[in-house]
Amino acid sequence: MGRPDLNRRQLLGGLGGLFVAGSFGFAALGTGADALASSADTRVRYWNLFSGGDGANMIAMLDAFRRANPRIDVKDSTLQWGNPFYTKLAMAAAGNRAPDLGVMHLGRVPGFSPGRLLDPWDVGLLAKYGVREQDYNPTLWKRGVIDGKLYALPLDIHVQLCFYRKDVLKKAGLLGDDGRMIPVTSTTEWFDVLKKAKQVQKKGLQTIGLWTNDQNFQWWFFVAFYTQLGGTWFDDANTEVTFDTDKATQVLEFLRRHVTDGYVVPGAPTGEQFINGAPFTWEGNWSVPVFSGAKLDYGAAPLPPVFGRQATHAESHAFVLPHQSGRGGAANEGAHELAAYVVKHALQWAAGGHIPAYTPTLSTAAYKKLTPQNEYVSAMDHQATEPKVWFAGSTGVLAQDLGPVVVSSTMGSAKPAAVAQRMKNRLTRLLASKNPMDGRTAAQGGAVA
Question: Can you give the pTM of this predicted structure?
Answer without folding.
Answer: 0.90
